[in-house]
Design goal:
By secondary structure, the chain is α/β, with parallel strands linked by helices. It has one domain: Response regulator (Rossmann fold), CATH 3.40.50. The protein is built from five helices and seven strands; from the N terminus they run E-E-H-E-H-E-H-E-H-E-H-E. It is globular, with a radius of gyration of 13 Å.
Amino acid sequence: MSKPALISIVDDDRSIRAALARLLMSLDYETEVYTSAEDFLLSDRRDVTDCLIADVRMPGMTGLELFHRLMETGRAIPTILMTAHGSERERMIAIRAGVLCYLTKPLDGPGLMKCISRALERLGSDVQA
């Protein structure tokens, strides 16, 4: 029996966190929300997160810095970064670093779902996509 995938959302904007969580829960994903990268790193759910969606620009640690920190600790979670202020240069840096998707806000629902599916395919059959 497969378990629902856990998707963690890290964004300093409460409305973005809430909207994404509602959308993903309506699609039968388990979700956790965090106000900062630091909060996510301190969470006991970090090591069971199947997919991470993080804002690029946040106070403190950025989404890309969070991704690098996870890589340094050996916990390479499939990561989707999102931003309202991105550039093609920033997108290329993130993709070359290993980020799965780099999306601009407002998010495109089908595009986001495609990225999540790609993330969960990497994990194998023990999670529900």
